Structure formats: structure tokens, C-alpha cells
Amino acid sequence: MTDILSSPYSNFLKLLKSELWQTSLDLSLSHSEFLSVYDLASKQAVLGMIAESLIRNNVSLERKDVMKVLAIQGRVATTNKAVNSELLSLSKLFTENDIESVVVKGQTIGIYYPNPLARTPGDIDFYCNEDNLPKMISAMASTWGIHAEGKPSEQHFELIHNSIILELHHCLMKFASKKSQKIWDNIFLSLTHNHVEIDGCSIPTLEPTLNLLYTFLHLYHHLIELGVGLRQFCDVAILLKTYYNSIDENQFFEWLDALDFRKAFEIVQMILVDILGMDKKYALSPIAPDKESLKAINMFMDVVWFGGNFGFHGHNRKFRFKAQYFLMTTYRKLQLYYRFYRFSPREIKASIFSSVPHKALMAIKGDLKGI
Length: 371
What we know:
alpha+beta; single chain
């Protein structure tokens, strides 16, 4: 179990909480202490936020570390501006070609951060239904000269434009459980979308209650597969704060119960309060940790600290053959399924008896795309 009271973790979390909730902090870091914080921030995909916190709090650093922090701040801000520009171009493509789409995660959540340019950006994820998907593929080919070639993964096509990765989803959320998939599809298709303004442009996204559900499910899916970093937990915390008076709590928990993820959400919510310092008033249910829930928090966080952002840091990912990577990741997933079974039994049971055998069969046939 990771000791979060130790100096590296304590300093890191103090800085992260200060940036998330805009609180003041009196801190100085030696060069070795700074490097420990830097390594944790890099692993958890929150370098921009830590840099912003160090600068805003005027944390005492050695000169070479100050220069590194300024470089990080500038690099993350520049990347965010590039992703925002690409998102605006994508929105223009929607409008000009009469395409209905919805953009999720990423910049549509980052805009709610205290400093949107400090959140470490990723790719652009957007969804088109079966009527709009061919129009989108055609528009990107004719206007931008990029093509959705080959077979997509279970959820999306991956394309690159202006060095920005675009994930064009034909399926926004993939469940191993057919029952859960049907419930999710009914939820998603029954709701109207919302809009968020980014650099003066109105971007279609999910309405508040569904946005929180989807962002949590995305986090938890990665947590029990190979791992996930604190950036995704920060996203959920920011949505809870932003949508404090907008979330339909009864509807949200009705959805969680139907999908069999309430227990998992309750632990994630405790992590937001106990680890990230979120005010309890933003929680959707009472926070009252007992011995069992504290053990669960430690179990969740062990995965977060071990693997970091999407589990990238937990294992060697350099293999000569893709089959070797498949065997390693499958073994890791089965370990996590065993540990997390009680928090989402339906989905994990379906993963073990349906999803894993299906992917194993694909691997035997040599089809490793998306595995």
C-alpha cells in the first residue's frame, strides 16, 4: 500500500488540491523533492496543473527547476490551444456538412477547470450515429484529405489531423454485458445533448447528468482493465462541482443501479473527497468511510499509483510480438477483475466469460486491432 503521507506523495497531493480548488499553499521544494513531484505528476498526467500550482503559490524552487516548470506551463498551454483550434475546425465541419455529432471528455471538461490551459490535453473523442458516420468520414476525406482506412476498433476509428489524434466513435461506450449495453444505449439515445462554449464556439456535448455518468464509466472501465491516472478523477471532481445544481441525483443513481456500478461510484466519490480534497457538499451521497470502504479506497488507489495514466507506467509495453503484449495485458486484466469483482459483478463476469474469450479467439486468428 502506498504511503500518501510520505513527502513525495504529500507534496504532490498538496499542489494538486491547491490547483483544483484554488486554495493557497506555503511550500518550498528542494531539487530532489521537486523531481519526486515531477515524476508523480508526469505519471498521473497532471503536469500542467502542478506547474500552475507551483507558479501561483510562488513555491520556492531551485533555478533549474523554475525553468523546467515554466517550460511545462508553456508546453501544456500551447498543446491545449492546438487541440482547441482543431476542435473548432471539427465543429465547422459538422456545421458545413449538416452532421450531428457529440464531443465527449477532453476539452469539453477542461473548459470547467480553474485554468483550462493547465489541464493536460489528450485526443479529441466524438461520436456519430449510423446515419451521420458515413457523412463524417466523407467530409473528413474530401475537406481534410484524411481517410478512415481499415477496420475500426470495437468503439472508434482513429485518425490524425494537424498532429492531433481524432477518435471517431461509432460506439461511445462498450460493455461486455449485453444487458448493460442495452441499458446504456437506451439511456444515451433517449437524451438531448448540451453545448459548451470553447474559444467562442458552441460545441455539442453530453447533458450534465449523462456527462457525469459517462465520465465516471470511462474512468472505471480503464481502472479495471489496465489502470487510470488521477487526471480522470480530477475530471469527475470538476464535473461534480460544476454541475452541483444541475445533476438529477435520483436519475443518476437509478442509472448506476441499472448498470450495476453504484458500489464503484461510491468508492470513487470517497477518493475525490479523501484524496483530492473535494468538498463533501459536491458529493451525490453521504461520505461516511468505514473500515471496508477505506480498504477499498486503498485498493483503487494502489492501481492508480502503480500504473498511472491508463496503466501506461505499470508494465513494460515493449514486446517483439503483439501476442506477447496481449498475454501480458490479459493476465493483468484478470488480476484486476478478481480484485474489483464485488464493485461491478455483472460487467466483470461478462468480461471473463465473454469478452476475454472473444479477444483470445481474435488473437489466435491474428486480429489484434483494438485488443
